[in-house]
## 1
Amino acid sequence: MPVHLQGPWSFLFGRLTLHAIPYDNVIILFAFTLAAVAGIAIVLPVLYFKKIPYLWREWITTVDHKKIGVMYIIVGLVMMFRGFFDGLMIRTQQVLADGPHSPHFLDASHGYIPPYHFDQIYSSHGTIMILFAVTPILTGLTNVIVPLQVGARDMAFPYMNALSLWLTAMGAALVMVSLFVGDFSDAGWSGLIPLTELPFSPGVGVDYWVWSIQISSIGTTLNAVNMIATIVMMRAPGMTWFRLPVFTWTTLSTNIIGLTAFPVLGVALAMLSCDRYIGTHFFTAGLGGNLMLYTNLFWIWGHPEVYFLVLPAFGIFSEIIPAFSHRPLFGYTTMVAATFAIAGIAWLVWLHHFFTMGAGPGVNTFFSVATMLVGVPTGVKVFNWVFTMYRGRLTFETPMLWCLGGLFMLLAGGLTGMMLAMPAIDYTVHNSVFVVAHFHCMVLLIAYAIFGAVIFWFPKVFGMQLDERSGKLFFWTFSTGSILVFVAMFALGFMGETRRLDYLYDPHMLPLLIIQEIGIGFYGLSVLIFAWMLFVSLRNRNTSLESDPWGTSRTLEWLTRTPVPFYNFAVTPQINARDELDWRRRSGLDLSHPDRFAPIHMPGNTMIPILIGICSFGLGFGMIWRIWWMAGGGLLAIIALVIFRSFQHTPGYMLQPGEIAAMERRTAASGIIAEQPSRPPLMEAGAH
Amino acid sequence: MAPVKCSHVKEHLSKWLTWPLVGLALIPLGGCGEEFRLFYPKGPVAAAQLKYTMIDVGIMLLIILPTTLMLCLFIWRYGKARKAAYDPDWAHSMTIELLIWGGPIAIVALLAVFTYESVIETNPYDPTVLRAPAGTQVPAQAPLEIDVITTDWQWFFIYPKQHIATIDDLVVPQGRVVRLRMTSTSVTNDFFIPQLAPMIDVMPGMQTRDAFSSDGPGTFTGFSADFSGAGFSWMQFSTRVMSGDGFSSWVAGVQAGQAQPNRGALSYAVFQKLAHPTLNIGAKPGYFASVDTGVFNRAVTDALNGLTYPVPADLTEKMAPDSGPSNQRRSSENGKGS
Amino acid sequence: MAIHQRPATPDSVLWQHEAEAHDDIATRTLGFWLYMMSDALIFAALFAAYGVLDQTTNLAGGPGAHQIVHPLAGFWQTLAVMTSVFAYSLASVAMKMRSQPGVILYITIALVLGLVFIGLELGDFARLIALGDGPDRSGFLSIYFVLIGTHGLHMAFGILWMLVMIVQVARSGFTPSIVARLLNLRMFWQFQASVWVCVYAFVYLRGAF
């Protein structure tokens, strides 16, 4: 049953040969050099300052939800940088390859990238930005914030949390490896069928795409289980459902989506793998396959996935806008209702991704109207944020700027989304860059929320604020880039430019393409400013911050000390109001601290998650290159590790009241950067 | 964190307002040219689509514009420095909540009506805009039927009644309804002529349909809108709309083998040779003076029976000049377009 | 600390000094329910795919459901699965009575019956593949093998889990972790039995009649 493959195969290395390493490609050589230099720049100081034991003990084997969240965000930001580079290359290729008289460089007949390479770039751009940048960053943010917002010590399953992280990270690692060993998929981020079938994509690209997504989405599903269980079971006393912060509500709904949607993606990709590995006929055009089945399954995941990403962003808006309006959120109850309405309707709209497949008027109308219905709760949310600002005292710190910018993005994305929802309009712009511009507005709004959230919660986690001046410069450069790139892209859509073109037939598009290129230049500038912002903030850091450095925050996470100690709350808070911190502040109780401490049970570190992660990387890599011994070994090792873990006695350890009192006095000593002062030897101390 | 100074706020706001306005200005400024194809429909279907675009945007602006204005106003009015009225508690109002739920629902209800109307009017399988208005007894000309087959990476247009076929060149008579039957021998493509015909997927082993007619003569670019592999960017065809007589003489010319380059007769065997992956750089046309019947149906049946035309590995991953036979073709054509 | 600003509020309004009352077993059970929810979605997607691919156009000249499934063959498998679930329920009863040998005995019976189930299924698969009707024959056979095979994989995983639990119960008795695992395994096993009932109804009965 194993299928016939083009090219050689050996037992030891599978399909992997030296030719798979594109050492002769100038662009990839440059990317490799960049990655190597960046890698060395990180590794050398670590070695020089002898920080490997610290990294191993405090980060890699940690089960602390805050550190795991931070690592998620770091993975996401690194991948976002990679995705940005892809975007830069796409834009540059298109501006160079416009019209029959366009120049050509390197191996390309137009522009500087040949089609097969260009197709990989845009496919990886989409895959990375959605699944390996935005998803991990949002997962990371919810990981850091939600347990604090509900007053929990940690997630419900700290060990599984670490496992989710390392699975996601290994998926991302596979995508990065595909840059230097073999190819990535050239069939679009959504895996256009039957282009992903073996006859049309005989290489390893699609396999890279499948396995990186499979592995990381198992991580995402486990995280969804964890997050829901945390919100349901781990709330502090008094934290009733209708006192939950809206960010926690959106996290809950988003993870319900994640829990139910990702398995469908897994099934679709597994069927595709069966087609590619054992020659089944799920999605082939002939021999009883049904290619629209893939498209349906993919978008049954794909559209909820959009709301999986956008709902936490809405939650972030709902936290930041009240904080900087100095007012409670307007219409809390409807906000929650709208959140769940969006999550519910998310399941009824998938077909609008292929109105052009030729379904009848009845079907198209149903999905069209269902799609438009999403606009109702979304509109409600926008109004709620606007009315939150009404009679407020708005201050425009950087997080607030990002949220307001995100609102404008949402308005633009909403307007164009309602256009696309109507099939008659969709027939003219479906698969055109108009659609691309529309969903970039939506994803950008998520990115805006992310930047706002990172800056907003940064002091809570690291005990220092980010520089406001460079932060604002970052915002304005980034926004200028967004406007230049995407306004021009909407216009190009009206010119009929379709997606994924490595060569553009119409020289009239050139002015707009140049505007886009300038825009992406602004994006590039903003990346530099972001790095500068981090540097300046670190140089001028003020680490003696109060619990609530912004002074106007409202929710529970700001109650504990800044930086948040590794045990979160010295004593579990009793919740009395929806905006607990605001309530305490106005009752004059915000400076009240507990007068006595009880022992705190902390989970111990474990190296099993990272080991399982590494084995899953081996499993994926072995399957991609059809190195069966490596894939089988990886799978067996994973099973063995899981069983081994179940035999381990993992009592954790107890933090004694005296230690807690001492750490509560020295605020920075228990932050997440610090080595935890009183950690007993792993897995020994503590009676249970 | 010190509060932001008043001048800062103004500066930010002015920036905020300037950029979108500059951006919005770009569209109408650039929109003068006919290269904004969607604004210049050349047939009833495309015109109906533009009409519904305008209606949809108009209705949506009813809610988007006030919201945007309100947002800008509140940002401006309630900046801390302006010392406007401040209410630290107000968080609920039944009236407002009814309005903010009711407003969008009303808008969606209105849009739903137009949606249904538009779906019927522009349904690619049977667009009612192409029907003669009720009551008028225009001697209806029978629609022109064309079979469309996409391969990797070319378009075959077969005129079954005229017994001719073309590659990458669609020629139709002005004013007459054109009905297309489409299939693919390779992967999914998407038929699209921005100024004439709506997008419809072209899928292997399946038949889809599309229909359009045109207002006047001209040449309009059409292409595949759904990515199909390495040669995708070159999957273009010119759509030439001719007068009725011009079309007839063109057909006669092709039948006589005068259209160049003339590729002779299109039997299914010839088609199968041509269906292998070909990068048609420059989208060069080709003409067939005669066509066997049933090429289209056999293409569908064979696809259903599992026939594929596999893409060689070097066209998907190592498209470097020295890595495979098909690249010789590519290299020889390298630079021809430039 | 500006202690003097504090009004005379009882400390208990602000802080909960008692040890946390999170029920570990309940949390783990909820987590497992959530996992099964996602698992159910996997099967839902597979059943949907089965519904789509179980048409005459998807046979591609190969055999259809009524030619390859026999309700009686499926019946023996159903019997094996159901008695296995029953045996596991007896193990749960034994756990309540804190009887280590009882638990081990009944789980072993459940395990053996599970093996019988998988053996019957593998026999079916081998017979079909020998006839040339493997998963690469047609779209319908692809989904037939993958749907039933996915369920079979779950069953195999459950059997492995039982093996581990037998060892753990024998070694450490009933610690909270082990009890939580035994409870989750019971849910898992019953869930797989329910999925099998769906398979039996949807594939075997619907195919045969």
## 2
Amino acid sequence: MTFALVGNQNCGKTTLFNCLTGSNQHVGNFPGVTVEQKIGALKGSKDCFVVDLPGIYSIRPYTGEEIVTRDYIIHEKPDGIINIVDATNIERNLYLTLQLLLLQIPTVLVLNMMDEVRAGGGTVDIQGLSAALGVPVVPVSAAKNEGVADVVDTALAAVRDHRRPTVTDFCRPQSPVHRCLHAVTLQIEDHAQRAGVSAPFAAVKIVEGDDSFASLLALDQNEIELIEHSVKQMEDETGLDRNEALADMRYSFIEAVAAKTVVKCRESKEHRRSLAIDRVLTHRIFALPLFFLIMFVVFWLSFDLIGQNLSDLLTLGIDALSRLVERGLVAARVNPVVTSLIIDGIFAGVGSVLSFLPIILVLFFFLSILEDTGYMARVAFVMDKLLRKIGLSGRSFVPMLIGFGCTVPAIMATRTLSSERDRKMTILLTPFMSCSAKILIYSILCATFFPHHAALAMISLYVIGILLSILTALVFKKTLFRGNPVPFVMELPNYRMPSLKSVLLLMWEKARDFIQKAFTVIFLGTLIIWFLGAFDIRLNPVTDSANSILAAIGQWIAPIFAPLGFGDWRVVTALFSGFTAKEAVVSTMAVLCGVNGSAGLSSVLPTLFTPLSAFSFLLFTLLYTPCIAAVSTIRKELNSRVKTAGIVLFQCVLAWVVAFVFYRIALLF
Amino acid sequence: MTETAILTLDKMKPDDEAVITKVGGEGPLRLRLLDMGLIPGTKIRLTKVAPLGDPMQFHLRGYELTLRKEDAAVIDIAMTSPTKAQGGEKL
């Protein structure tokens, strides 16, 4: 038995889902799109599942979320629908409900946030509402886990007794809309039955002009014209166009029902509190400084105080374990190649990636709090004007900002963007935000070659990255991402206390994701790089890394980089190993030059670079392919190997071109 | 509203109150507006304008909604509060 959980955004759907299913969740994608699909077994049952559908306001064929929901309900045919509604905002929430009722699937209406309604002096006549809408209604407070057991019982009973919604007519009797819907419903009834969809639902969708239903029902030209005639007549008589007329019908019906069954709360405490908080957080002058302060604190805690220290601790642990294992392997006289594989390949590779884990956990702890409290919506509100010029909305700002810390969580954070187009474009632009792992490379080269202007040189790299991202966005807005962005018509939810359970579940989800990647794709990738570095072309293990396959590839490819001013094979090999992690660029270069650490490196660097070619190298490092952890995250979020390869190729080519143009022009002066 | 220019949602000033008279726009934008409850007859109030001057935050049907100015411009309104907006009719 499968239930679909449907509701608006910000109505507490995820909280209810977590209450209904506990931690027993499976996260995947809906077929063909990167819209997240969560499935969980209903608590206390093995064969009842709940599918968490995306938060939507209406069943339309436009945004990815709406299409997914529509297709899921129509084609997968869940046994029951659990429709969650924010009782403090009942009018707008019931708008979706009226569309769901027409589906003629056993439905339970869950009124969430009833505690807030009561606290504000409001009441809802549950029986009256249930009678008016023809479905069972259950009042709950998901955040306090009140009434959830009732939801389960009522939903199971509704499906068991095949209780279809009994009210499907929301128009005023004898109104033009009523006549039109009635005529169309009668006309398509047989078709709908054959296609296995509900006739009243299909009738509304056809009247609304959703063409996919005309083909789903296999209507012929004659029938379509007949329907069109009825619709025209309705439009003429009401003076409204078809969509306006239907929206008006739904809202009028809801207003009438609400007038009879709902005593609205006074302006709720939560709403007044939200307005008060917003007077500070979206203040005309303080909004931007406060935003940057909040982000700075989040960054500082994640990448410095908490995350970094935990990460260092983890690294110490991995190192200790690695040494222990190495001693054991040497004592047991294991073949040195196998020892190298385990120590230099597996431990070093996976270990270096795993050390990111604490940072990701801490970062997502704070991000999900910012999201759940409702602050992210305010960020979108405040930042929208800046990002609109490059074809994005305010929502993309935070993921891109996180990119300055680490590309991996930044790309994971694009999950909250509701428009698929925006998400793809944000993923494309995020690698331009120079990640913190590159700081090591920048600082050593800048200190060596621009000792008096090191800070300026570093800042210029960040600025160039941002400028190029804007340029890229402008170009792609006109080409690859042409077409209408999803309209920025967004609800600003009341600020609410985040639920610790939801926050922890999200952290766990991201951690599981990352660990999985660390032991699959990244594991494989680091093994390959290790192999290339540990063997020569005849597959003999090498003692001097200058003889390795990696060095051979470096030598072979080096001429490509000669026009950029750094054709030395050691530099090129270092760039290669930077694919595992950007820190590796510096360490590899040191190893290949036979020097120790960054101090030794700065003494040999002048033999590899001139100041000009050094900056050209820095530009290339800034822009070329993200590390393997980031690339595998991109692949997961885009759900496409081809597009991921496209991004990697694009970054590499762009890096080459920018470095080339800079170096060649700079040589002229 | 006889001879004067028709007032649109984007011309409102903070705390102005109005009633929606007509919803324009097309495609997904228009449908989204209708779905969010912006239909003729709906009462609406401007809560504030974003710090950079755009988008705008409205209060309607008991919740807060953000709209970009260019999108708000497709919605016609009739002021119900003493108007502070320019270009509206004098009461």
